[in-house]
Amino acid sequence: MTGILLAEDEPRIASFVAKGLRGAGLIPTVVTDGPSALDYATTGDFDLLVLDIGLPGLDGFEVLRRLRASGSELPVIILTARDSVTDTVAGLEGGADDYMAKPFRFEELLARIRLRLREDRTAAPTVLRAGDLSLDLHSRRLAVNGREVDLSAREFALAETFLRNPGRVLTREQLLSRVWGYDFDPGSNVVDVYVGYLRRKLGGGYLVTVRGMGYRLEPG
Ligand code: CA
Question: Which of 2, 41, 65, 156 is buried most, with the most CB atoms less than 10 Å from its CB?
Fold first, then answer.
């Protein structure tokens, strides 16, 4: 299993990212200050560090500097405010592998995490299967009973979320935060609209509406 250390002091973001990582089959451990981030990162128990810059105790740049000074080659993805991207690029020279500007969509962060993990040759499974459905995460192709279906980027992210949770009810709120991001308007009907698109492409009653709750994938 793949362990991700997440150093983020803002509870809303930490919980949003941790939930998404668990949904993607990864194991998150959350720390909320710089000294803990450094302690945990140097244990060797993790495959990747997602590191916020604005942390109490020691900021993310200092955590990264000390981590690299200790000889660690742990892959690091930095989280930063959009207006601090220039500082962050300086941080990359200090040994980070990549960065994400806040606010971000979870799927963007996950794509970068997967890329770093793959470079580290500890790849997660590349094809998700549920009943008649299979989704190739590399080629981004969905097959229904062997029939290939073209998906837009958003439909792909939605299909991935369902295929990682076959038979489970996913609420609109869960789908919104996994596929669109935590800063998206919760009053929007975008989830229903996109479930409708995906349902038409899949055919055959795979996506079931659970009244008053959300949607469930019945793999068939
Ligand atoms: Ca912060």
Answer: 41
Q: Which of 117, 102, 94 is nearest to 5 (CA)?
A: 117
Task: Quickly tell me which residue has 């659970």 as its tokens.
Answer: 210
Q: What is the pLDDT of residues 11-61, one digit of tens each?
A: 999 999 999 999 888 999 999 999 999 999 999 889 999 999 999 999 998
Q: How far is the CA of 55 from the centre of ligand 1 (A)?
A: 5
Cα of 191 from ligand 1 centre, angstroms: 29
211 Cα–ligand 1 center, Å? 38
Collapsing DSSP to helix, strand or coil, 12 comes out as: helix
CB 58 within 8 A of CB 38: yes
Distance 63 CA to ligand 1 centre (A): 13
Q: What tokens does 35 get?
A: 């000294």
Measure the CA dihedral 198/200/202/205, to 10°. 110
